[in-house]
Every structure is written in structure tokens, then in C-alpha cells.
Amino acid sequence: GDDADAALSIIAETARRALSDVRDVLERIDGDGPALGARDLPDLIETVKSTGLDVRMSFSGEPEGVPTVVSLAAYRIVQEALTNTLRHTVAPAVADVTIDWRGAGAVIVVASSGEARSDSAGAGRGIAGMTERARLLGGWLSAGPSGDEFVVTATLPYPNALAGAAELLDEALA
């Protein structure tokens, strides 16, 4: 149906964007190009809401001064978690996105609930990719069922962001 088409469209767009991530990060290190990140989350949420997923968003603090690589990782983790919700649940489904920018790093929680799709494929690369993103920044990510919800929790520390970016670049250039 229309919901499935909209979900597949978002999944395809997510895949396209993921392919350009490393190039985007490299361009931003040179100071070129618009940064996709924390400031773009409201637009992302509105796009996902248009598919029929009820997304609620709450932020604590402001992403002022957050390193670009952390801002980008936060955006991608929320994007992937919401894509997974669309992929694995049937409407009506609900997702609560909470981000706390205060303290020594960003804390992201995406808790979703909804009836599981009977045709939902097993685990793809989404959780592994989100986990790796967090790890490269010196943080961590957990994802799994909690009661009636599926919860993705990530911490993205700020002090280690530059070391994480250097590690990412070293791996990319190796």
C-alpha cells in the first residue's frame, strides 16, 4: 500500500545518503557544503511523520558547539532508528525521539512501539551501522526490545570526537 511505498522510499533515500556520508564528512572538514546534523532533525521528523508514523520529539539543551561529526552521527542514528521502525512495524506505530545535548556528550533514545510486520525481514546492517558510528566517536549504542517497545540508546561523547574522526579517516584511507 501507500504506507509501504512511502517506507520503501525513505529506506532507499537513507541508503543513498549513507553512501555519501564519508564524502560529506571529508567536505565538512574542509569547511565546504551544508552540514546535515542536529539542526536538520525537525525536518527529518516531519518527513517521517508524513508516512503515518507518529513521531514525538523532545530535546534537552542545545546542540551549540557540538562537533560536526557528532551532530552528523546523531542525525544518522535517529534516521536509521526511525527507518527501522517504518520497516518493522505496521501503522499505527509510535516513536519517541529524545536527545539530551547537555553534559559531556549527546544521549539519544529512540523508543518505538507498534505491531510487528509479519513480512518484516530479519536484522539488516542498520543496528550494526549505528553501533559502529557511535563506537568511532568513543561512544556506545544498544538496541533491543524493552517491554512492548524497541529501544535504541546511544551516547556520543564530545571530548573524543576528534580522535574518533581521525580514527575514521585513518580506516577510510588505509
Architecture overview:
The chain is built from six helices and five strands; from the N terminus they run H-H-H-E-H-E-E-H-E-E-H. The chain is an alpha+beta fold and 174 residues long. It has a five-stranded mixed sheet. Helix 3 packs parallel to helix 4 (68-88) and helix 4 (68-88) runs antiparallel to helix 5 (126-136). The N and C termini lie far apart (44 Å).
H/E element order: HHHEHEEHEEH
Q: Would you tell me the structural class of the helices and strands?
A: alpha+beta
Write out the strand line-up for the largest beta sheet, numbering strands in chain order: 1-2-3-5-4
The level of helicity is: 40-55%
| End-to-end distance | 44 Å
- How many runs of DSSP E, i.e. beta strands? 5
% residues in beta strands: 25-35%
What is the approximate shape? globular
Mean pLDDT level: 82
Major sheet details: 5 strands, mixed
Radius of gyration using CA atoms only? 16 Å
The residue ranges in which pLDDT falls below 50 over 5 or more consecutive positions are: 26-30
Number of helices: 6
List the helices and strands and how they pair.
Elements (H helix, E strand, L loop, with lengths): L1 H18 L1 H9 L11 H9 L4 E7 L7 H21 E12 L4 E12 L9 H11 L3 E7 L2 E9 L3 H13 L1
Parallel strand pairs: 1-2
Antiparallel strand pairs: 2-3, 3-5, 4-5
Helix pairs in contact: 1-4, 3-4, 4-5
Key features of this structure:
single chain; 174 residues; alpha+beta; 6 helices; globular
